[in-house]
Write a structure and sequence with these properties.
Radius of gyration of chain B: 26 Å
Oligomer: heterodimer
Structural class of chain A: alpha+beta
Strand content of chain B: 5-15%
Distance between the termini of chain A: 27 Å
InterPro entries (chain A): Metal_resp_DNA-bind_regulator, Tscrpt_reg_PadR_N, WH-like_DNA-bd_sf, WH_DNA-bd_sf
Number of domains of chain A: 1
Number of strands of chain A: 3
Largest interface: A-B, 28 and 34 residues
Keywords (chain B): Membrane, Transmembrane, Transmembrane helix
Distance between the termini of chain B: 28 Å
Protein name (chain A): PadR family transcriptional regulator
Strand content of chain A: 15-25%
Shape of chain A: elongated
Order of helices and strands of chain B: HHHHHHHHHHEEHEEHHEHHHE
Order of helices and strands of chain A: HEHHEEHH
Number of domains of chain B: 3
Number of helices of chain A: 5
Chain lengths: ~120, ~375
Amino acid sequence: MAFRMTEQSYLVLLALAQQPRHGYGVAQAVKDLTDGAVRLGAGTLYGILDRIVAEGYAEASGEQVVDGRLRRYYRLTDAGGDALAAETTRLQALARRAHQVLRARPAGQLGFTGRTVASAV
Amino acid sequence: MPDDASTPANPRFTRSAALWLRAYPRRWRAARAAEMTEVLADLAEPGASRLGLRDAVDVIRNGWATRWREHPPARPWLAFRLTDRRLPAQYDAWLWDDLTGGLYPFRKTWPVLFFAAVVGIDNGPYPGVVALMVWVLLGFAVRGATRRAALARYFPRNPDPSLAAVLGPSGFRRVPRARIAARPVLRATALVGLTAAGAMLSAGRFAAPGDHGSAYDVLGRTLTLPLSQYGFPTALMVTLSVAALMLTVPVAAVLLVGLSRRAAGRPAQPHRTLLGGGRTAHQVTAGLVAWNLLVALLIATNTAFDFTVGVPAVALGALLGPAALVGWLVVRRTEHDGGAPLALSDVAHLVGRRRRRPLEVDQLVAVWTWPDPYALPAAGAD
């Protein structure tokens, strides 16, 4: 099945781009990256990890037992880094076009400004 | 919650998570359930003793999505299920789960279920129910052989390199030999057999006369059962039961004489796991006893219920129940000496042709294991 870059997969890849993380670490990083707007459940998180590992975007990089808890770490691969960069470029281009569209409209018609869109993207 | 500063999940939470994680395929659970349980515990409220509803729904949804993602497409899957046609190699992992799953023998013996459905449509529910029971019994009876044959067929021990590339590294692991424990199984057989015979006989005594008549078509000939005025072949059943008692109890007693003496110096069995003495076995026994009583109640109170179910139940119960009771008493007495508990295979050995030879010590058995699909890269790769 072809890999589909959803917002959640993008955020997980972004979390792994900072440093190798274990499952809970990824969930926390995604929460921080989105100011608490996206909270990944364990099922969703492992569904995404399964797919990005199968796609070769991430790999298991080691495991530790901390305070009696098993921690398996995942890290981004080069292919994952490339996919992340490509998606970021696409989102940047989309945001640029969105700004252009919004600037072209009469002010106040939509009730929000370009600044709000920029922070959402 | 601070990162990595948590305590191990409490056992109740772990059990609750394990229950919900059954939504995932077996192989996935084997590789990742422990890891995911810890993440679930981290994400849960501090001190939680069970998975919250939101997390449970998330686990089930994604577990089934994982199953769906790995499932073969409909056409090859149907060809495999109905005609044993090989699946493409990319589904080997799914196939492994399917073959090692607890219900595989029942999936394998599907034609009986098909027969049940066809017969049930034409003749009302009763023959269908009997065929369904045959299917369940058949599934249990053939489960070991079916699974071994299928594993040997689809997963040769020395797979060719292309298969090994899909499966990854695999190998043998040595585990204790699993045997069925004698005492709990004999006790359960005695309980189930005796309650079946007793309940059916007494229910037959009080059964209301039915409209079914006593004639049965057997292979084109009409067979007439000698029914009592209550619509139940009580005389036949009592005769059968007494005959069974007279046959099996003396035979069991003769066979078991000397078992305690011969088992006296039995060896310890450090490499053995005994099955059948746990809570599940007790629950199954209680369920079967309750089922016997329920069927007897139906026979006694419901003229529409076909009482022929009682005939094999009484005959089988009267054959097995008392013999198992004698066996259970003898084994219980034998185990009072504090030696290793007996397996059914030990009892068979001690009453069989080789009874004068000493019991053998079980060895660890090699089990072929398949790889963790999330195996870590080699050491030093970090």
